[in-house]
Design a protein that fits this description.
The model is unreliable at 4-10 and 13-19 (pLDDT under 50). The protein is built from 5 helices and 6 strands, in the order H-H-E-E-E-E-H-E-E-H-H. The chain is an alpha+beta fold.
Amino acid sequence: MKKLSITLVLMTLVCGMAFAQKSFNSTQKQLRDNILSYIKAEGFQPTIDDDGDIKFKRQGDVYFVIIGEKDTDPMYVTLTKYYSYGTSLTKTKVTLAATEINKYKMCKLYVLDDSFKLNMELYLKQSSAFTSIFYKLLDIMDSAEEEISEL
């Protein structure tokens, strides 16, 4: 009976993990793999998270490269970083900054209930469109983050 219970629990976990992954077509998967290889070659240690997104750390902060499932030609890619509110950086202050931050090219500030995030958003057909501007994307995010921290 214990073996049956354990088997059922394991099957449930495996099925849950299988459905959590995004269903990429071959072009989207190739794009993700190329971006993953690039980030790895740049000295970061990227991994694929439970959702199928690329996750990596830079200067102690966690970033995600997310390939959208719906758009296939061109493909939709975001470079995302999540933040928590604190005592000095409240949801109200971040909301006030959103209009100014959203003037940055390709950068969007999303104010959520318990956190906020910066997204660098782009459509592309090849990974080189992302990798050739990777450090520029990070610089823009750094500038936006600095502006937010000055609130």
